[in-house]
Design brief:
The strands form four sheets. The protein has a seven-stranded mixed β-sheet with strand order 1-9-8-5-4-2-3, sandwiched between helices. The chain contains eleven helices and 14 strands. α8 crosses α11 (357-371). A hairpin with a 2-residue loop joins β10 (219-221) and β11. With 372 residues, the chain is of the alpha/beta class. The structure holds pyridoxal-5'-phosphate.
Length: 372
């Protein structure tokens, strides 16, 4: 037993720090008694749209649904191919399959862990309908190159920003790129609810309307359904939580970045450790701080860290194209070499806004000690 622990994220501490703001905000929703939709949801949607630099935000039930309703609202369906990374959480490809389309996995850049635009281009066929980059770990994907590619091939572009609330590319918020950008408010994300939640951000008014309709049973009026939709709505209590936290998000992202800079300073020159590479044009929001270590040392490093009371993780150990559920898509081992190499070498170190400089030092010292 160690006397202390450094968790991967610390939501208890966050709650204690914002408790005095949070409790009255929750009370207000209880008093209004509007639990689905209502003024708290409308207010949060407006505030988050402003934060994202877009005209419309539609709150939905979770980040997976945000992707699903967006792809569906854009008319993507059977016979269509959607190009996405394999190095992501399965929600990204689940949404593609949920609309009946075919996920086409493209390899990533070893520098950024995000889609390599040249690899995306190689995968474009006559059936390709959309490119779906993920802004993994909080780092924006190569949005300028991907926008150009989408335009040139007349493809839709949807960003999965479940890990990247507040990220920007060339000084422009990521939600301003492409047709729409989706967010998750899963509790551990940079902006997290106290339950499930998600949103879609877009400048396209017709698309926003269609997304709202699909996410609310295809309703145009209470008992008129233009199409069959789903039930995926943001609830009032979650919206109130998110509105309180949104006021802190820019500061929290700054704290994350400060921790990241310290980690990188301490680990950059350690033999065997590769620290994150952040292109100049990217404003990373450090959802996760991910290093690479030699594959053959990763298990012992993780075990040693755990033994020291330090929680580290792997996001993600098995690439999607090699998951049992996608066997029928026919990807062999070796088909996405960068993704496969990275998946064997990555380690996520503790990262949350309340992480102290002393804790970062403790973690970095432990990594140094155990990696060689
Ligand atoms: C968390 C996450 C999602 C899904 O979000 P949920 O709200 O859990 O449905 C989608 N994509 C990525 C990359 C994620 O990290």
């Amino acid at each position: 037993m160690t006397k202390w622990r450094i968790p991967l994220v610390d939501l208890e501490q966050q709650y204690q720090r914002i408790r005095e703001e949070m409790e009255p905000a929750l009370q207000a929703v209880l008093t209004q008694a509007q639990f689905i939709g209502g003024p708290a949801v409308a207010a949060f949607e407006r505030q988050f749209a402003e934060f994202c630099g877009v005209r419309y935000v539609v709150g939905v039930g979770n980040g997976t649904d945000a992707l699903y309703v967006t792809l569906r609202a854009l008319g993507i369906g059977p016979d269509d191919e959607v190009i996405l990374p394999s190095h992501t959480f399965i929600a990204t490809s689940e949404a593609v399959r949920l609309v009946g389309a075919r996920p086409v996995f493209a390899d990533i850049s070893a520098e950024t862990f995000n889609l390599d635009p040249a690899e995306v281009e190689r995968k474009i066929t006559a059936c390709t309908k959309a490119i779906l980059p993920v802004h993994l770990y909080g780092q924006p994907a190569a949005l300028e190159a991907l926008t150009t590619l989408a335009k040139r091939h007349q493809l839709l572009l949807v960003g999965d920003a479940a890990q990247a609330h507040g990220a920007s590319y060339c000084g422009t918020p990521i939600a301003r790129f492409g047709n729409a950008t989706t967010f998750s408010f899963y509790p551990g994300k940079n902006l997290g609810a106290y339950g499930d939640g998600g949103a879609v951000a877009t400048d396209d008014e017709a698309l926003a309307k269609r997304i709202r309709m699909i996410a609310n049973h295809g309703r145009t009026q209470k008992y008129v359904h233009d199409l069959e939709g789903v039930n995926s709505r943001l609830d009032g209590l979650q919206a109130a939580v998110l509105a309180v936290k949104l006021r802190h998000l820019a500061d929290w992202n700054e704290c994350r970045r400060r921790c990241a800079v310290q980690y990188t300073d301490l680990l950059r020159h350690v033999a065997g450790v590769q620290t994150p590479n952040i292109p100049e044009e990217a404003t990373h929001v450090m959802h996760l701080y991910v290093i690479r270590v030699p594959a053959e040392r990763r298990e012992s490093l993780l075990a040693s860290l755990r033994n020291d009371g330090i929680d580290a993780g792997i996001h993600y150990p098995v690439p999607l194209h090699l998951q049992p559920c996608y066997r029928s898509l026919g990807y062999a081992e070796g088909s996405l070499p960068v993704t496969e190499t990275v998946a064997r070498e990555i380690v996520s170190l503790p990262m949350f806004p309340e992480l102290t400089a002393d804790q970062v030092t403790v973690v970095a010292d432990a990594v140094k000690r155990y990696v060689c």
